[in-house]
Design goal:
Layout (H helix, E strand, L loop, with lengths): L1 H23 L2 H14 L9 H21 L3 H25 L16 H20 L10 H24 L15 H4 L10 E10 L2 E6 L9 E11 L20 H5 L4 E7 L7 H13 L5 E5 L3 H10 L6 E3 L2 H7 L5 E6 L2 E6 L7 H8 L3 H46 L1
Parallel strand pairs: 4-5, 5-6
Antiparallel strand pairs: 1-2, 1-3, 4-7, 7-8
Length: 416
């Protein structure tokens, strides 16, 4: 029993830490998923708080997982983890049946599960949470309650600070198809040898009072009268990293292919919502635009032509503007506005609203080989994640022996 209790604690702890971390580094993305759920449930009045709720839910999940791994307040955290798992098991059963959203967002964009796969995942892990609660008396308090609660709260604060950092800048890890180093046209396709979607079409025919469905390989004879046909997805195949990328002029002309055929460097100012774009960032972008007059510079906006034109005029940006869906633009970059540098349709660099470079910094960047630039940025991304992971591991390694020592001291005190 002790082994199974420890195993359950570690399994649920790792699950919650991983799930919380993947959402904490992309609060904007999880906020969109949260918004979709609120719309589906008819809770539109909560949508302005979706981002805050997403950050808090993520912090709570990460806090529970880290606390279980260390062994802090296991009786309490195990109970909340069980409630969390049971609630979402029933919730994902509903999403698997109703299919209100495309994917649950339980692991952010790191691992995109279908609603049915998410329900199956919860069915697998919920027994561990239930067993942990059943055996919770095996994990007595190990120190003063105020000390344990303070350590538990610290994990939640770490998650919130991480989310705020990624919100103000960009996700530590970019799981989207527009990540640095990707070639956009390649990311829009799947390899020829990748699994393809498989569909099945059934044809409905009538003969007298009898109505029957047939497959294409077993069609009836001419005595039957055709009524209708229905096609359904039988097996899901590979999905490209960028499934939808539609850019158009404000006259409705398709511009995506023209955009991706531009040779050499191209700066794209991305403005998902013109009325919510940060003015200081647009001033920086305007300075950059006026400085690099020979550098191709375009604007992609999710707002209508009138609002976009007024915004660009206010910040002296006389660049051609194109329209794309706001959700697509937020997939390109989690900022409003944000700046993206392409070279032959390869993503070289991305900057959030707070990190738009100065003209001199951009000149230095353009003077370098674009492949080296994108490689450096990818290395920095990996180093950031490794640094966070090392800090978390050190924290757990420091806390675990302290907790163990306090546990022994408390047991000795109880004996005396």
């Amino acid at each position: 029993m002790k082994f199974l209790s420890t195993l359950s604690r570690i399994v649920i702890g790792l699950l919650f830490v991983f799930s919380g971390f993947t959402k904490a580094i992309d609060p904007v993305g999880f906020g969109f998923v949260f918004t979709e759920y609120l719309k589906t449930l008819g809770l539109d009045f909560f949508i302005p708080l979706a981002l805050i709720c997403a950050i808090l839910v993520t912090a709570f999940e990460f806090m529970l997982g880290a606390s279980l791994l260390v062994g802090l307040q296991v009786r309490l955290t195990a109970f909340f983890a069980m409630l969390f798992m049971v609630f979402f098991t029933f919730f994902t059963l509903w999403t698997a049946v109703a299919n209100p959203v495309q994917h649950c967002g339980c692991f952010g964009d790191a691992i995109r599960l279908s609603n049915a796969e998410t329900f199956l995942k919860n069915l697998i892990f919920t027994p561990f949470a239930l067993f942990l609660v059943w055996q919770r008396k095996r994990f007595p308090p190990i120190s003063l309650k105020i000390w344990e609660c303070g350590a538990v709260a610290m994990f939640g604060i770490v998650s919130i600070l991480l989310s705020l950092h990624c919100y103000r800048h960009l996700p530590l890890i970019d799981f989207a198809g527009f990540k640095v180093g990707n070639n956009i046209p390649q990311a829009m396709t799947v390899p020829p040898d990748a699994p393809q979607h498989q569909y099945e079409t059934t044809f409905t025919y009538q003969k007298g009072t009898e109505i029957k469905a047939f497959t294409i390989d077993h069609l009836p004879d001419s005595t039957w009268t055709y009524l209708s046909a229905k096609t359904r997805l039988v097996k899901r195949g590979a999905i490209p990293e960028i499934p939808n990328f539609d850019v158009r002029t404000y006259r409705g002309r398709y511009f995506t292919d023209s955009l991706l055929s531009i040779q050499g460097p191209l700066l794209i100012l991305i403005v998902p919502y013109a009325d919510k774009a940060q003015a200081k960032a647009l001033d920086k972008a305007g300075t950059l635009y006026r400085h690099g007059t020979e550098l191709p510079f375009i604007v992609m906006s999710g707002s209508n032509e009138e609002h976009t034109a007024a915004l660009l005029l206010n910040h002296s940006i006389d660049a051609p503007a194109y329209f794309s869906d706001a959700k697509t633009l937020y997939t390109m970059i989690r900022a409003n506005p944000g700046l993206m540098l392409l070279h032959d349709a390869n993503v070289v660099a991305k900057w959030s609203a707070r990190d738009i470079p100065s003209p001199s910094a951009m000149d230095n960047l353009l003077a370098q080989d674009w492949e080296i630039v994108s490689a450096k940025l990818r290395i920095n991304e990996h180093l950031s994640i490794e640094f966070f992971a090392v800090i978390l591991i050190i924290l757990l390694m420091i806390l675990h022996p302290i907790v163990h020592r306090l546990h022994k001291t408390k047991r000795a005190t109880d004996v005396l």
